[in-house]
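JOB MANIFEST
job_type = single_chain_structure
chain_count = 1
residues = 232
[input]
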Amino acid sequence: MLLHLTIGIISIFILYMLVPSLLTRLAGYGVMRRGTSPKEVAFTFDDGPHPEYTPRLLDLLAQYKVKATFFVLGAQAERYPELIKRMDREGHQIGIHNYIHTSNWLMLPGTIRRGHLERTADIVESIVGTRPDHYRPPWGLINIFDFLRLKQYRIVLWSLMAHDWSRKKCQTSLRSTLLNRIRDGSIIVLHDSGDTLGADGNAPHYMLQALEEVLNQLKTRNLKCVRLDEMA
């Protein structure tokens, strides 16, 4: 009896969590991981908006005339609606990163839909008048029921994860990592908040320093930085 129960639990775990993650991470099934147009890249920023770092990031993007995509937390959008308005006003795309930074592996499908996706979409729509339709689950972890949302949301992962939540990484090698690994069609994920579990609270400060150097260098490579909804 105990053996059968154990096997059943393991099977549910594999079906609910591991299979969809393998399908998306290894095969790219049902998700956007990179673009196909030459000379286009997409910078994306997770976990914000943050009252200190997001304004500095928006200033930097405006300086270099870069359009980006922000995957925001609904709770943060609720707390800082003026930053959401500024993102929209300055031409950036706003996507969903759940209401709070909780893994989809740890929640039931109904909780994700009502408590995170719909709730965050309602918040963003109430602020800017446009309902977001791009979604990045926290940590990129997907469960089997997330595939049911593909008609409503485009699920986005990335082709370049720079590990910028670590202050040490930002200070030592983030710039070179980005410049060496950015290619045509790259979807780059960075973070404009260090408040998430496992992140360094000061890391975004150093990320912004590295990003400025990277954006300056990318000008010489003739790469266009676009929103995800502009990327083929």
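[summary]
The CA atoms of residues 188 and 218 lie 13 Å apart.
Residues 1-230 form a domain with the TIM Barrel fold (CATH 3.20.20.370).
exit_status = 0
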